[in-house]
Amino acid sequence: MAPRERPTGFDRWEILPGQGVYNDPVLYTATGERTYTGRYVTDVITDLGIEFIRDRPKDRPFFLMLHHKAPHREWTPDERHRRMFEGRTIPEPPTLWDDYATRTDALRENQQRVADDLTRRT
Fold first, then answer.
1. 76: helix, coil or strand?
2. How many domains does the structure of the chain reveal?
3. What is the rounded radius of gyration, in angstroms, for the C-alpha atoms of the chain?
């Protein structure tokens, strides 16, 4: 990671390259790359956040930014949750197929809509 791409103002950081991957994620750190083989990215990021809070100096204030990949395409669940809703019907939210015709320009122009990108996978 080039120095200009490194987060500034943080004592510690671990970030995904781009949007990262769901399984066996690589995270960039101040000292290099770290691959979490056999792990699911949500679990890794959550564990890192918990570890930070648990191990931080208790007499000092802190600021933790913890961002998950899960809201980003291609929405791949981990194996233990992959079949969690199999055989169940989940009602669609009323706005899933909204055409945004009565909404602000920003919403009408949005190009990242779940309904447009949703695919059925097994």
1. coil
2. 1
3. 19
